[in-house]
Amino acid sequence: MNNFEFISYTPTPTDAYMLGIAKIKAFGRIELRFKHVKTKDGTGNFFTCATYTTQDPNTQEKKYTPCFLLDSRSDEELVMEMIRDGVNRVLAQRSALQGQPAPQAQVHYPHGLVQPQAQQVQIDEQLPF
Fold it and tell me: Cα separations (Å) of 28 from 47, 82, 111, 113, 123?
């Protein structure tokens, strides 16, 4: 049973930093929204959950904290892949209607997670369990 479902993607063309909002449904009853944002240097993009900002009173340093976390790395990877695929489908459909090539959304692995390398995936597939 798949616990997550891609619902929609809404572009935000008037926002300088955010490209859009991807909405998913978790466990058939909880809607979660992920921001589709540009990288700081403007050369890429990624998805992240909503965050709130706190400030260290001593150093005045800002800290961005996610509003929610998925407690499983496999769920996190599944959700990010599902969002990327869903957004790419939406962008491709819109581009086809406008006769333009579709931009590609990228996957962001938050909280220090890294994308598995192809060699690791092949090794994992050979495991007997």
Answer: 21, 15, 25, 26, 33
CA angle 4, 63, 31 (to 5 degrees): 20
* Residue whose tokens read 């616990």: 3
Q: What residue has token string 């692995």?
A: 109
Mean pLDDT per 10-residue run, the chain (129 residues)?
A: 87 89 92 90 86 88 87 88 90 75 51 40 40
Of 108, 76, 97, the C-alpha closest to 3 is: 76
The reply to whether the predicted model has a pTM over 0.90 is no
Torsion sign over Cα 95, 110, 24, 35: negative
| Best CA proximity match to 102, nearest among 93, 111, 113, 110 | 93
- Estimate to the nearest angstrom the gap between the alpha carbon of 29 and the chain centroid: 20
